[in-house]
Design a protein that fits this description.
The structure is a single chain. The protein is globular, with a radius of gyration of 14 Å. A hairpin with a 5-residue loop joins strand 1 and strand 2. Helix content is 36%, strand content 8%. It has a two-stranded antiparallel ribbon with strand order 1-2. The chain has a single domain, classed as Beta-Lactamase. By secondary structure, the protein is mainly alpha-helical.
């Protein structure tokens, strides 16, 4: 799929694609607020609907704090996207 076709996807189409990916996906903004997570992700880490809009550091268990350290490191490097796998 080329960039133009990807850019043409609307939000509902993109959400449908993300739900079908066999990988846990959590989308957060630069301040750490959870914007989205797919069902696959909720099967493996602590994800609940009430976490949407909340800061990820208050939702993650201690073992998941690696994400927050990486997010802080990436934010200090002035990146616009953070992808943690």
């Amino acid at each position: 799929m080329n960039d133009e076709k990807i850019a043409a996807l609307d939000t509902s189409q993109l959400a449908m694609v993300l739900e079908k990916v066999p990988a846990g996906i959590t989308v957060i903004d630069q301040e750490g607020h959870i914007l989205y997570y797919n069902e696959y992700c909720s099967n493996f880490v602590d994800r609940k609907p009430e976490y949407i809009g909340k800061n990820i550091r208050f939702c993650h268990k201690k073992v998941e704090s690696i994400f927050m350290r990486e997010m802080h490191h990436e934010k200090n490097k002035q990146t616009t996207h953070l992808f943690t796998v």
